[in-house]
Structures are given as structure tokens and as C-alpha cells.
Amino acid sequence: MDPRLKEIETRKAEIRAELEKNDSKTDLDALEKELRSLNTEKAQIEKREQIMKGLNEGKLEGRQLPNPLVPKSKEQRNFENMPREDLLKTEEYRGAFFKSLLGKTMTDNEKRAFESANSGAEKRSYDSSTTAVIPTATSDILFQKMVKVAPLINEITLLRVAGNVKFAVQGTRDDAALHAENAAITPAGDTLVYVELGGYDITKVIRISKTIQTMAISAFEGWLTDMLADDIAVKIEDFTINGTGSSQPNGVEKAVTWTVGTNNVQFTKGGSPTYDNIVDLISYLPARYTGNAKFLCNNKFLYGMLAKIKDDNKRPILVQDFSNPIAQRVLGFPVLVSDKVVDNTLYFGDFKQMVGNLAQDVTVEMSTASGFLNRSVDFLGSALYDCDVALTDAFCKLSEAAGA
User: Fold this and answer.
1) Alpha-carbon distance values, 59 to 2, 52, 55, 56, 141 (Å)
2) What is the largest CA-CA distance in the chain?
3) Distance between CA atoms of 321 and 315, rounded to whole angstroms?
4) For the purposes of burial, counting CB atoms within 10 Å of the CB of 307, is it exposed (0-12), middle (13-18) or buried (19 or more)?
5) What pTM does this model have?
6) CA distance linking residue 20 with residue 15, whole number of Å
7) Residue 314 region, left (φ>0) first, then alpha (ψ -120 to 50), else beta?
8) What is the pLDDT of residue 122?
9) Phi, psi of 86, deg, nearest 5
10) How far is CA 361 from CA 117, 201, 223, 267, in A?
């Protein structure tokens, strides 16, 4: 028995004795209040003892209650059985990823999350060399920055399918036919066009002083995504426009066969394009593509040539798109700008008919080996990308004529 129970019973007996004296000076309210308090305390003690007895006899199942003083992030989580896509979204993995790159010590939960997410990868030392998939939140930030650097990435049909992919689009499409009564119906000659994409490794090495390891995780995340977005996005955009298709992605310039008078308008060598040239270019594009059609050129062509073209009423054909402060339109069609378009060239078409695939999530490797003597750290960012044009008649081009 709890010693306190004996004290409570003794005090209750004393209170009973005082009440029996029937003394007018006795404070009945105070005694009643004290008696209620003693009874409540006694009930709590007896309840606790009953629970303890049940545990000792195996009649009650004990369970560990969460400690309200311990943050939820410190609680054990079942990372080992968590789907990989969910694991990459956790704060534990994000913290582990950046600590691995910065050579900082991980918590137990972060280490478990990191090892579970990259269990299929080659085992490497955390402070020497690390390869890991970028966390989901960071990957989203990186993609947003890539689109800002290279807007064309957001205009094409971009897939994010692991490994090789075969993508089908509508090819030949016959009109519906009038059916004569009792006559046999002939199936339409509609076809599908397939785009088969693999993956070409696009890499960028960034070398920086080892003092970067003193950066806060949030600051380092911003720096790393800025660097990778600038370099990887620009190279992806370059391949999308100029890729030869030979041991590299197939860009719009090489994927389409350009024929003057059909899908190619040329202006005089050493001269400038005219209003009629631009109108002819638009006329070459089949009407089914004009709903998504856009122009694409470099900044030099945009302001050095397009901005100078005027209609018969002396109005510039390049106008500001007031729905977007940084966008322009030519004869109602939006204009995309890329430094990777060669000079004196203007593309016009539906860029959704260009299909690209990021066959593998962007990865980052860190190594201190190559920069040991210089106290520097190397970061290697890489992405697997391929692209090709699905329907070549969705693109037209204006270019300078060849000649002396």
C-alpha cells in the first residue's frame, strides 16, 4: 500500500473527530474542501495501483506513449519500407542529401533515409564521394529554374520516363466519309507516328573552394540549383534546337528537311526579312498547328530584324504582350527567345510536336579527391536527355539565302 493512503485515512479520521465536537468555531467549508481533496487524491492513488497490478499480472498491454518534449522529426520512421518516391519527399532525406554533399554529420534518421533511398546505388563514403538522387522538393525548384533559364523546355512535350521510351502521336488522319446506303464501309487510313527516345548523358562539373561546406543548407541548395539550372538547361535547349541526331539528341534544325517554297522562306543574302516574308512563313504552317504555334529566334534577330519590320501602315509587327510584361508577339503569335538559335534564323511552329525525355532524375556527385591539394570540392551534375520531332510538318523556317 502507498504510504500516502495511510496518511489520508489518518487525516480523514481527524476531520471526523472535529465534526463530532460540534464546535461553532469550526470552519465547516474548509473541512469539506479538504475532505473532497483527500478523497480525489485517494481515488487517483488507488487507480494507479490497480493499473500497475494489471500490468504485473499481464492483464493489460503496455504501450509507449510519445514524449511531447521530443520533436516528431526525432521519432523513428519506417524508411526501409517506404516507397522511394515518398522517401524522396521527406525532410529527413532532403537534410541527408545536402549534408552528404557538404560533408556534415547526419542524424540517425537522416542516415537511414539516405541509405534507404540510395540502397541500389554504389556504396560510397559520405565525406569523400557521394552519388544520390536530388530530393523531390529540390528537383521541383531546379526544374522551375531551368524553365526560367531556357523557356523552350516548357514548350515541348517533355516526358520524365526512366529508360528508353516509345511515344506515339497521330500521323495521317483521313476525313470522315459519306456512307452510301448498304455499301461496305472502308476503314480510314489513319496512322500513328512513333518517336523512340533513349538517353544521352549531359554533365556539368563545378569546382569550388572547400569553404562551401560552411554554408547553411538552404543557402547551398539555392547556389547548387542556380548553377545546375543555368548549365544543364542551356545544353538541353541547345540539343532541342541544334542536335544532330548522331550520337546526340535530334533537334528541330536537323530533324526537319527544309525546302524553299514549302516550309522554308529565304530572304536576300546580306539583307533583312520583309513583312511579306513573315506572312509567307505563317502561311506555310498547316492550320491544325496554328493554335499552339510560336516563333523562335535569338535576341539579335528579335530586336535587330523583327522589331524593325513594319506593315503598310508603318506599324511594327513586333508588339508587347500586355498579358505578360516580358513577352512579345508577332502578328498575334508569341515569340520565344534562345541564344542557341543561329543568327538570321526564325523558326515558326507547334513546339509541342517536339518530344523530349528526361530519362533519369538529375543526380549530383561530390568528390574531394581531385581538388585535394587545392582544398576544393567538385560537384558533378548530370541528366539523361533525348529528343526528336514527332511531326516534321509542324515546323517552318525563315533564313538567310546562301550566296556570294
Assistant:
1) 21, 10, 6, 8, 54
2) 131
3) 15
4) middle
5) 0.68
6) 9
7) left
8) 40
9) -75, -35
10) 13, 12, 19, 43
94-98 LR contacts (CB < 8 Å, sep 24+): 94/135, 94/137, 94/138, 95/217, 97/132, 97/134, 97/135, 97/138, 98/217, 98/220, 98/221
Provide the 8-state DSSP code for 310.
Answer: B
Extended strands (E) in 145-199: 157-159, 165-170, 192-197
- Rounded to whole angstroms, the Cα distance separating 45 from 260 reads 97
In angstroms and rounded to an integer, the radius of gyration of the C-alpha atoms of the chain is 36
As a whole number of angstroms, the distance between CA 41 and CA 34 comes to 11
DSSP character for 230?
H
What CA–CA distance (Å, rounded) separates 146 from 240? 14
Closest CA to 308 of 359, 339, 271, 336: 271
Pair type for strands 345-349 and 395-400: antiparallel
Residues 347-378: b if buried by 16+ CB within 10 A, e if exposed = bbbbbbbbbbbbbbebbbbbbbeeeeeeeebb
Pairing of strands 345-349, 129-133: unpaired
- CB of 301 within 8 A of CB of 343? yes
When pLDDT is cut at 50, 70 and 90, the band that residue 381 belongs to is confident
pLDDT digits (tens, 9 = 90+) for 300-335: 999 999 999 998 888 999 998 766 656 789 999 999
Lowest mean pLDDT among 55-59, 89-93, 206-210: 55-59
* pLDDT tens digits, one per residue of 129-144: 445 678 888 888 888 8
Residue 80 phi/psi, 5-degree rounding, is: -60, -35
CA 20 vs. chain centroid, Å, equals 81
Q: Kindly state the cell numbers that stand for 365.
A: 556527385
Cα–Cα dist 151/139, whole Å: 17
Burial class (CB in 10 A: 0-12, 13-18, 19+), 66: exposed
Residue 378: strand pairing partners: 207, 367
Distance of alpha carbon 334 from alpha carbon 343, whole angstroms: 19
